Structure formats: structure tokens, C-alpha cells
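Q: what sequence does this backbone want?
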């Protein structure tokens, strides 16, 4: 799940200042302005719920209110402030950006789908909001379980009816900021499918523009599970931008559910 958080932090700089390029290698990863956003906060909230057995909604409410300045969408910000918590029919990509821990924590695809739905529907109860969370979580689960990219692609296309027969070169020229699951999750999965390694996945996500922190968050989560290697410098860079409570949850989650599955590797230069 650290892959998702790294993607969020790296992509945060480019969310409202897109840097579309056909040369992803040009993208600066270690920008001093990079920070965690709502994507990281919510990812950690879901991880905390899994670790403690808390209700997903309770954990999301708790963590969201700890970090109220993290860039939440209007509907979710109102949900956080409300005394009575009700789903609000959202199809936004918030359900997909927070789901990566579920892809790591459960032993079957069926459980993963059930929990992805539960992690979405207390806010994002629109069919597209649930579908986006399930697609992202199942893609990560399949990557973690050793599926090939072609197997993963075929499953997502069949089960969720996403068009993955596009390339980033085709997406990039006309792609605009899009906060919907249906306009973000397929693009993030395509980024992963086209990537050569974790580093390339994050840079490629940023290179297409749009909601870059969320695209890189989703793609980074899947890439971490598939490649099982993350550059050490990126982990350090991200950790420096997280709070102590966040790092405790991440460390505990990795020890319990990832058990050394993801190795740190050499430098990124």
C-alpha cells in the first residue's frame, strides 16, 4: 500500500499543474512542494480499519477529521462534518483511491470484492463508485497473486466493462481533470499495464495529466503489488512527509499483511 501513498505524494504537485509529456522520464519525483493528500489519509484509514476491526466508515470519519485540510471533495467534506453519516450517491474516485489495503489484506478475490464494496458504499454508493473500488482492489489482488498483465486486463474488462484497449499516448492529448471513478480508474489501470516497473508507473501516471495524485495512487498501488520492488529513495521521500501516526499504521500493516513481499531496491537515478 506504500506504492499508493508514494503515487499520491508524487502526483500531488501536478494535480492542478499538469505536466503532460511523451517523455515521462522528464518528470521530477522529488519536488519539495510534494505532500500527502486525502488519497493517503483515506488509504491509511482503510488500513487502520482492517488492522483494528473497526467499521470502515468509523475509521474514515476519524482519520478524515484528524486531517481536515487534505483536499477532500465537497460531498465528502460535508459527510465528514455531518452528525448523521449517510451515503450520498457518489461516483467519485475517492472510493478507488482508498482501497489498496483491501487488495493486500484478504486471501481470496471474492473477499476482496466484498470488502471493496463495503469500503465504498457508506459514502460512494453509486454503482460506478462501488465498481471503481472493486476494479482497483481486484486489480491489485490479482497483481499480488501473480496474475499476468494480460490476465489482469482480461478480468477487469470482463467484470467491470472498462475499455483498457487504449494507450497512454492515445489518452494524453485530450485527457482532462476528472474526479469520477469511470474517468480515472481505467486510465490508472492502463498506466500500470503499460509500465515497465514501479518508477515508470508513477511517472507515466503523472504524464497523462488529469487528477494526477489519484491516478498515480491507484496505479502505484497496483504496480507495487505486481513488481514487488520500490526504490528506497521514494520510500524515504514519502515517509518524510507523513505524520508519526500514519507511519505506525503503515508499518503495522506491512508487517501483518505484506510480510516482506515488497523489496526496497537501488536508487532511481
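A:
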Amino acid at each position: 500500500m506504500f506504492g499508493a501513498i508514494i503515487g499520491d505524494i508524487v502526483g500531488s504537485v501536478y494535480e492542478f499543474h499538469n505536466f503532460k509529456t511523451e517523455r515521462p522520464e522528464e518528470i521530477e519525483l522529488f519536488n519539495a512542494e510534494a505532500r500527502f493528500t486525502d488519497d493517503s489519509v483515506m488509504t491509511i484509514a482503510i488500513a487502520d480499519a482492517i488492522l483494528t476491526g473497526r467499521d470502515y466508515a468509523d475509521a474514515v470519519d476519524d482519520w478524515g477529521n484528524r486531517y481536515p485540510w487534505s483536499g477532500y471533495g465537497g460531498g465528502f467534506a460535508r459527510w465528514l462534518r455531518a452528525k448523521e453519516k449517510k451515503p450520498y450517491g457518489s461516483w467519485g474516485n475517492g472510493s478507488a483511491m482508498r482501497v489498496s489495503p483491501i487488495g493486500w489484506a484478504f486471501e481470496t478475490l471474492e473477499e476482496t470484492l466484498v470488502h471493496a464494496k463495503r469500503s465504498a458504499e457508506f459514502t460512494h454508493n453509486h454503482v460506478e463508485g462501488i465498481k471503481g473500488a472493486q476494479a482497483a482492489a481486484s486489480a491489485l489482488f490479482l497483481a499480488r497473486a501473480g496474475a499476468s498483465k494480460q490476465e489482469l486486463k482480461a478480468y477487469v474488462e470482463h467484470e467491470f466493462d472498462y475499455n483498457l484497449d487504449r494507450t497512454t499516448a492515445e489518452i494524453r492529448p485530450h485527457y482532462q481533470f476528472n474526479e469520477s471513478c469511470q474517468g480515472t480508474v481505467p486510465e490508472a489501470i492502463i498506466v500500470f499495464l503499460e509500465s515497465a516497473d514501479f518508477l515508470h508507473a508513477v511517472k507515466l501516471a503523472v504524464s497523462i495529466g488529469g487528477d494526477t495524485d489519484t491516478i498515480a495512487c491507484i496505479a502505484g498501488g497496483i504496480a507495487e503489488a505486481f513488481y514487488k520492488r520500490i526504490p528506497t529513495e521514494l520510500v524515504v521521500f514519502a515517509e518524510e512527509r507523513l505524520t508519526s501516526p500514519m507511519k505506525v499504521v503503515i508499518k503495522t500493516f506491512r508487517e501483518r499483511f505484506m510480510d516482506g513481499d515488497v523489496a526496497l531496491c537501488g536508487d532511481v537515478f
